[in-house]
């Protein structure tokens, strides 16, 4: 049978999660997605009304099938963690079983197991603030949504992952080089995510024969990136300064993801893989 993938962090057809879903679908995988609860309604409605049909097109002309959409809020591990005001919030009250533990249980009940786990989500409420002006609460929220969310997802999904499976996340060069503007502790969150990739690769490798890698992606004008405020500048900077002077397509990250979770990458684990037109290798902008 084909492989089954759970992709956390898909809420429209613009981001890396969507592109990864498409590359995996084109390679024959069955696609399940986890969608942030507040974005669930509009995503499902748009899907149903055919708004994404053009971008669902796969290279063979068929349309990507999303077998099931699960509501997910990856900052909560189990129902006991959810504050009362969130429980009472209309958007959250309209869905159920969206904590990480419950989503893993639902996927287990629905499908038994998965082969591929993708983490394509991040959130930093103070991302537009310099680190020097970031509050403790904002910093910890960035780490919770963007780094620990991955530890939690892998923790809860590992027991239902078939041996030989693989997992990936998305990171950004701001973890290792100073990128003014990528604030609020988001640079710290990506540093944590990359370090955790190495430790989780060891632990999940030994425990479940699962590979763990992260893709350090170039700038893309996704919904999340537009919220940061300087994405167009970053895209232009990359175009001017990278070894490859071309637009970076989300599909190029999708294709690398498909490679990394496939048997072609069977000896690659714990790695940060750059998909950025080579920008990370430059030491002097010319
Ligand atoms: P996106 O907006 O398509 O994806 C982010 C997703 O995270 C959204 O669907 C949002 O609903 C979801 N999300 C936020 N908080 C959540 C929570 N608590 N629980 C569940 N889902 C939640 O944007 P993009 O840019 O494709 O982001 C995907 C990943 O790629 C992120 O990790 C991001 O940091 C990373 N990345 C993006 C780059 C860019 O230039 N766009 C560059 C390098 C890495």
Keywords:
286 residues, alpha/beta, seven-stranded parallel sheet
Describe this entry's structure for a reader.
There is one protein chain. The chain has helices at 16-26, 37-48, 84-88, 90-93, 100-111, 136-157, 186-208, 223-228, 231-241, 250-260; strands spanning 4-8, 30-36, 66-72, 114-119, 161-171, 211-217, 272-275. It has 286 residues and is of the alpha/beta class. The radius of gyration is 18 Å and the shape is globular. The model has no long low-confidence stretch (mean pLDDT 97). It binds 1,4-dihydronicotinamide adenine dinucleotide (NAI). 1,4-dihydronicotinamide adenine dinucleotide (NAI) is lined by residues 9-11, 14-17, 36, 39, 72-75, 120-123, 145, 170-172, 217, 219-220, 222-225.
The unique ligands bound to this protein are: 1,4-dihydronicotinamide adenine dinucleotide
Radius of gyration: 18 Å
Order of neighbouring strands in the sheet with most strands: 3-2-1-4-5-6-7
Helix content: 40-55%
Number of helices in the DSSP assignment: 10
Approximate strand percentage: 15-25%
Unreliable stretches, pLDDT < 50, 5 or more residues? none
Instruction: Calculate the mean pLDDT score and round it.
Output: 97
Q: State the order of secondary-structure elements, H for helix, E for strand.
A: EHEHEHHHEHEHEHHHE
Separation of termini?
50 Å
**Given the helix and strand composition, which structural class is it?**
alpha/beta
* Number of separate strands: 7
Major beta sheet, specifics? 7 strands, parallel
Q: What's the overall geometry?
A: globular
